[in-house]
Amino acid sequence: MSFLDRLRAAERRADSLLCVGLDPDPAKFPAPWTGDAGRIFDFCARIVDATKDLVLAYKPQIAYFAAHRAEDQLERLMAYLARTAPDVPVILDAKRGDIGATAEQYAREAFDRYQADAVTVSPFMGFDTVEPYLRRPGKGVFLLCRTSNPGGADWQAQRLADLPGQPRLYEHLAAMAETRWNRNGQLGLVVGATWPEELARVRALAPTLPLLIPGVGAQGGDAAATVRAAWRGTPEGGSTAPIVVNSSRAVLYASAGPDFAEAARREALATRDTLNAARRG
Ligand SMILES: O=c1ccn([C@@H]2O[C@H](COP(=O)(O)O)[C@@H](O)[C@H]2O)c(=O)[nH]1
Fold it and tell me: Which among 23, 164, 174, 184 is least surrounded, fewest beta carbons within 10 Å?
């Protein structure tokens, strides 16, 4: 099954556009786990148990594990997800980008070591650095396109003077990903919920690609505006090309107390319902 089909099936099953980001920060864990990096797996597993029927994807961010020498706990978490939420695709947020030979190793890391269904990749170094990921036909590859951070426009919004129409860099990337670069239908794009107008532009240029959209919740992106900008429905109520709307901190740290998992569920449910109301409204 292709990654795109897995996403579509997960969207249908959970009736959800929500992706919960797994960004475990021990400093924010509830007592008695506060500050204990040895509890990263336990914390994430509780979040997964509390939300797995509400999401169309999970997105672990690798830095939150590597920074604590907790890659072994990420491996355990990936195995736990495969066992307890086998139908929920997992997107490893790694944002790798390097020459082809090194990219091959990064692809092995994401898909063989961690068994991720998809990975985020920086396209800054060009197509030959993306191509190694495209040798894994069942796997998804989300290219950074118009990122959610305030400085995202520094490069991504610059115009390319040598190209007809002088598109902005992120527009050219969206057009390439929709066409020439998307050899096996594996590509998607990362676009921030914090830029709804650019999000609508990307959707117009890349109507068939899945979009990974971080920035709702802690970064203040508007969930309903995100759906209006990027969601395109089928007559049956599904998506023509899924949108994967990520929220990490707002869900993970909805409560700092022993009820953190229940609070995470409430926040995930509320966000899922807001997203669904916007696509049906
Ligand atoms: O443009 C981007 C690309 C990736 N991210 C990642 O998404 C989450 C967002 O976390 P919140 O707590 O919901 O703000 C995080 O892992 C980022 O590394 C992004 O924010 N923007």
Answer: 164
- The reply to whether 52 belongs to the active site is no
Residue ranges per structural domain of the chain: 3-171+183-279
The SS3 of residue 93 is: strand
Segment 189-238, tens digit of pLDDT: 999 999 999 999 999 999 999 999 999 999 999 999 999 999 999 888 88
What's the pLDDT tens digit per position in 117-132?
999 999 999 999 999 9
**In whole angstroms, how far apart are CA 58 and each of 10, 35, 239?**
11, 23, 18
Q: Check if the interface score ipTM surpasses 0.90.
A: yes
Q: From the CB of residue 138, how many other CB atoms can be counted at a distance below 10 Å?
A: 14
CATH assignment of 3-171+183-279? 3.20.20.70
Q: Ligand 1 site: residues with CB under 6 angstroms? A: 21, 23, 61, 93, 147-149, 190, 192, 214-215, 217-219, 246-249
Residue 178's H or E segment, with its range, is: helix 169-178
Host H or E run for residue 38: none
- Entry pTM: 0.98
User: Of 28, 52, 59, 95, which one is the catalytic site residue?
Assistant: 95
Instruction: Please give the Cα distance from 83 to 204 (Å, whole number).
Output: 37
Nearest CA to ligand 1 atom 7: 214
